[in-house]
What we know:
Elements: E1 2-6, E2 12-17, H1 20-23, H2 29-43, H3 103-119, E3 123-126, H4 136-145, E4 153-157, H5 162-168, E5 174-178, H6 184-188, E6 192-196, H7 197-207
Parallel strand pairs: 1-3, 3-6, 4-5, 4-6
Antiparallel strand pairs: 1-2
Helix pairs in contact: 4-5
Amino acid sequence: xxxNTYNQKGExxxxxxxxxxxxxxxxxxxxxxxxxxxQMSNRRRVIAHTKGRGEVRGGGKKPWRQKGxxxxxxxxxxxxxxxxxxxxxxxxxxxxxxxxxxxxxxxxALFMVLSSKVKNNLLILLxxxxxxxxxxxxxxxxxxxxxxxEESTLIVLxxxxxxxxxxxxxxxxxxxxxxxxxxxxxxxSFKYLVxxxxxxxxxxxxxxx
Length: 209
């Protein structure tokens, strides 16, 4: 498969051949959905937490003696029956939402999503992507000249580039990601993929071992 290649000025400078084993994979929506659900679950943060009777402060002393008072037996004022006591069956931080997906399935789904981006002309290939200094204005000017314009865009970097990462993080619809960390959920979160040619090599070396 050949795809148009652009420079940073948005000019078409030729075509580049993409590896068919990554960018020409038949799409299986069910597999992609399964991988996305697992990734969302693995990223989920457990925030809601209620304290049980053992976590609530106080209540170490028995409120009254066991027998002879005519009242019900109680061992602690922090029992769930008491106001200010623990919560019975409430949400806790111990909940586990993680879902395990085999590595081959994750990799296959990644290739499917990349193939879908190419098929729908949502993947923009650059010969290189470099800016001088940490300036959001520079990365904005580059993106305006590309077919993606100002749509939501994920920039896939071949290696860590501090200037690009810091310059792009001020843009609300733009994010950066290292090619070796590419995944289904991040790709589907953005409409366009902007990939320098060097990133294709990194993707191939990382996911086609």
